[in-house]
Amino acid sequence: MAKRFCNHVLLRVRASPSPPPGLRYLLLSTAAPTPGASPFIAGYLVSSCGLSPEMAARASKYLSHLRTPEKPDAVLSFLRSKGFDDDQIRKTVSARPQVLCADVERTLEPRFRALEELGFGGPALSELINRNSRFLCLRQDRVILPNISTLVQECGIRESRVLTILQRSSSLVSRSASSLKEVIGRADELGFNRNSRMFEHALCVLSRYSRATVASKLGRFARFGWTEQEALHAVRLGPFVLTMSDEKLRKSMDFLIGEAGQKPARLASNPAVLTYSLEKRVIPRYRVLQFLELRGLREGTMAFLTALGLPERKFLEKFVSPYVETFPELHQAYVPAATPGKSTGIIAV
């Protein structure tokens, strides 16, 4: 499947300069909104597309020429036939109102067929469009296919990984060729190995931020005792730490360093722990381990950060379930604390 997909992409990129009619023109107009929204379309957006009155008022400015429901009805029917649910239709129309003006046979069907040929079908197709409505108006032969070719041929990304990357970060291939190459260059500058899975993650993360923003995010780690090299080391191991908010990072660092006694350098080598929920994972597990250690019951040499990384079932089997009869309060307090939606238990040490 993956090999056929990549062969198809490379053949399309190398094909003759006269692309198929369905790929020759932009699907949807990106022109500025026209003043004087139609009362009909505003009501239609609310009743048929699920938009709020406020959202409908904004979106209807792009659709002022519509006076009858025939074309929008055909578009909605087509989207539903492709697996779009009501919420996905609402989000797509809100992000790209002009889709309601599209001709189903001449524009939407060729566009969706082209995406299906790339390996997207069923829920994956509707989710892709819902996450990035630009796929409805980009010229596939000019933007998407060449960018995919760059990822495969120049970056050496394995064929089996291409679809996964597109699903995770569709914006990576919906940008200009120069913008994609700039993102790739920044990943190289940060020291990512192109043969590493983290290189793929880095491309997805870096595509969301400017160079200046990434520099700012790297600089904030110094406030918690990381050297520049330690910060770069952490990012190479887990590019996702760049996506953390300042507040989340501060709270995680404050607890892990201040209360749990972890060294900053140790955290730099285990960046994933910074992303765990303090309330539902880090603090409850820390209290359990503290409870057992004070009673001389913590066997083995498993480090705290390693214990944090265990799947929930494994953590229960190793540190909670063996003591259900001896210390029932441990289980009674930990399970609610670690369960989403439950009130937090208090583990007395």
Describe this protein's structure.
- The N and C termini lie far apart (54 Å).
- Among the domains are: 112 residues, no CATH class; 64 residues; 61 residues, no CATH class.
- The protein is built from 19 helices and no strands.
- By secondary structure, it is mostly helical.
- Helix 5 packs parallel to helix 7 and helix 10 packs across helix 11.
- 29% of the residues are buried.
Low-confidence stretches: 15-35
| Range of helix content | 55-70%
- Distance linking N and C termini: 54 Å
Question: Could you tell me the radius of gyration in angstroms?
Answer: 25 Å
Shape: globular
Query: Number of helical runs?
Result: 19
Q: β content, as a range?
A: under 5%
- The succession of helices and strands, N to C, reads HHHHHHHHHHHHHHHHHHH
Structural class: mainly alpha
Biggest pleated-sheet summary: none
Mean pLDDT: 84
Total DSSP E strands: 0
